[in-house]
Amino acid sequence: MRKLPKRRFLEVAGRILRNKMSKEAIYPFYCSFKLTRRCNFTCSFCNCWHVKNRWKDMPTEDVKAVLDNLARSSVIVCSFEGGDPLVRDDIEELLRYQYEKPWYLLFTTSERDMQARYPMPKYGKYIDFLHISIDEGHKNLDMYDELEEYTKWGSIVTVQIVVTKNDIGALETKIRRCQDAGVKAVVMCAVHLKNTKDHLPDLWSMSKVGLELKKKYPGVIISPDSYFNRITWDHGCDTSSIIVDADGFLWYPCRVLEEKTINLIDSDLMTYLESPDGHERRVRMAACDIQCAWYQYYATQAFVNPREILSAWMPYYRDLLNRGKQPVAVAPPVMPKSVTDLTHLQILQESAIKGLDRPVGASLELPILEQTQLRP
Known about the structure:
The chain is an alpha/beta fold. It is 34% helix and 12% strand. The chain has helices at residues 6-22, 60-71, 91-98, 114-117, 120-124, 147-150, 171-181, 203-216, 225-230, 269-273, 276-286, 295-299, 309-313, 317-321, 339-354; strands at 30-34, 77-81, 104-109, 129-133, 156-163, 184-189, 241-244, 249-251, 260-263. The protein has a nine-stranded mixed beta sheet with strand order 6-5-4-3-2-1-7-8-9. It is globular and about 50 Å long. The model is unreliable at 327-336 and 348-376 (pLDDT under 50).
């Protein structure tokens, strides 16, 4: 994980304060940048792939112009999404380019056979948080068997689980598998978009199950408590995060309302956010009564709200202390040969999931736990 200069955090803190004083989320801190609409999946809850066969990606230089624009803004977490960003031929060049920007990069993909088709260890050098979408909608549940492989690429790995109305009951099995592999999970609702089937789960059931699983599997689910609470409110979203489409246009105030504004290739983001039109759109968003449950609009504010920031960042606490390196402790596919071996594996697993206690007055270097291999 890269190190950002202290002044960058001070700049972001100042924007958070201005948002609090103005009582509206003028400045966003998270940006979902859709690098392409092309994808090798056809999820029924997604409308991105409907145009994939006739979609032409933005030129590399235009993408870089958008990245430059975002780098001048309050955004401190930039997310490369799609479609699937891995399908772009210039993805390595874009990863290298963004690495010099003052943010953390989150990279979301659902591509199969990544380890065989892409140089993921090379890409991992430029990715802080690697999110891998694995769920019934993507029809790629077999990828849960490869989680240990993904942790070798140098990024903090999170399984992105999109939950539909039919999948709530299967959620715990997925969370347990993430815990066993030493990776994290972000749980979100399948939002109902235009030209898609309505898979939005019952929000009260989703809220109840999500909060229960967070207590049962501490440190695994990074979706903040406030997300599971707010999805049941009449209004629980705001513009702490933004979405930039694959053509460079800004969806604002949100993606659900299907309204685009400026093109970030040649229009300054911060100037627009401070404009009367930006304010008017935020006012309309605040009056919106659509319970869409879109994760980033409902969850992002928890990461910058002083009352919620501790619980929101807690799942990442050990990884951040450990310079972003992710511990791996995995139960082997064969039975341990002795009680001693079993006990050792249990200690590795517990330290990977819960962290290590620091002796009073001592300075303890958190170790990187290597995957245990037993001879057959």
